[in-house]
Amino acid sequence: MAEPQTSRTLRNTAKVQRYRKRLVATKEDLIDQATRLQTIITVHKLTAPLGWDDVCSALAAARDEASASNRALKDKRYEMDQIIATMTKWVASMTQPSIQSMLPESLGWSRTSLSADRASRKMGFDWYTLHLRNNMDGFFAQCNFPPSGGTNCLHVVEGDDEIFHFVWSYQHEYELPIQDVYAGIRLPIWKKLRSDTSPFPIEMLDQELLDQVAPSKMMYRRVVLSEKRTDVLLTREFPADATSDRIIFVSGNIHEDALLPESHYLRNRMFWHVLEPVGPNRTRLRVVWTISSFLSNKKPVTWAEEAAVLKRDLGDGPEHVRKQRFHDISRCDMAMPDDAWTALFTFEYEAS
Fold first, then answer.
1. What residues does 220 pair with on adjacent strands?
2. Per-residue pLDDT tens digits for 99-124
């Protein structure tokens, strides 16, 4: 019995010794903390109270800072008031009846104008291109695209005041992933919308502002066709993102630009080019173009006046016969057979 008693005594003694060591370690740690805190207090002990001169200087500096902040806020408010006033006028101009009343109901939202100041122009560029994208699906639904395969159609939408719109709808499917199609077709689309083959000079406008909206994805170009005819087109590319796997190119006329000379004769032009994956290695291209007969900001343009401007020979005969002849000639001029689309979208690759 003596042996077990001795073992218990040794174990208890060891426990007491370990406990005392922990107490000593805790005491030493507390002493170290107290020393460090005392040092901090000594280093950061309060200085003498500030004098009235120092207090006044600090208050004056705070006053100057508050005054500067107040002036900056007032300047910002003035700037925003100016933008609001300009945009209010711009929105009103978008609803005036000069062109709006001439457009078919399905195209009535497409009329546009731009103000002169930079802020409203930038917002106008952004708003109109978003407007074209957001109204795209509704307009595409009217084109009756097939769910698969190809199509090539040309429709004529009749409006009031002898105004009509040509509407092309084209669909083609590629046995390639969407990024491969995009790499080959982006340049042909941009060249078409930029009017690279135009015999008339091309003027690129507002690129600095456009790059603030969508860097390297927008262009605004002007082509002077004659003394009375100008074509001004705004284009934007929308890449695929978290909300959509489609790549969308939209383009539309700017009918009235406060910084550009007025065009006596206008055409309403809108273009959509859409790439959409329909499988891992299959991509669908859908294209819709719409181009109107002549419009004017001042008055309706008759078919006879347009025919005269375009130097169309309609021959003799009653008015209704010559009018139909003009429509037939126009439709023939606007025709896009399959091989024309194929040539237009022949893959080209941008220099790396």
1. 234
2. 444 445 655 555 678 888 888 899 99
The residues pairing with 284 across neighbouring beta strands, listed in sequence order, are: 173, 276
Give the highest mean pLDDT range of 17-21, 148-152, 246-250.
246-250
CB 203 within 8 A of CB 223: yes
CA dist 88 → 31, 80, 81, 126, 315 (Å): 73, 12, 10, 16, 49
Residue pair 186/347 in contact (Cβ under 8 Å)? The answer is no
SS3 letters for the chain? CHHHHHHHHHHHHHHHHHHHHHHHHHHHHHHHHHHHHHHHHHHCCCCCCCCHHHHHHHHHHHHHHHHHHHHHHHHHHHHHHHHHHHHHHHHHHHCCHHHHCCCCHHHHHHCCEECCCHHHHHHHHHHHHHHHHHCHHHHHHCCCCCCCCCEEEEEEEECCCCCEEEEEEEEEEECCCHHHHHHHHHHHHHHHHHCCCCCCCEEECCHHHHHHHCCCCEEEEEEECCCCEEEEEEEEEECCECCECCEEEEEEECCEECCCCCCCEEEEEEEEEEEEEEECCEEEEEEEEEEEEEECCCCCCCHHHHHHHCCCCCCCCCHHHHHHHHHHHHHHHHCCCHHHHHHHCCCCCCCC
Closest listed residue to residue 171, CA positions, set 63, 255, 336, 287: 287
Which pLDDT belongs to residue 153? 94
CATH of span 121-344: 3.30.530
Distance CA 215, CA 206 (A): 12
pLDDT (0 to 100) of residue 7: 76
pTM: 0.75
pLDDT above 70 coverage of the chain, percent: 89
The domains of the chain are located at: 49-94, 121-344
**The residue type at 9:** T
Contact of 309 with 326, CB cutoff 8 Å: no
Least Cα distance to 269 among 237, 294, 301 occurs for 294
Total Cβ atoms within 10 A of residue 148: 10
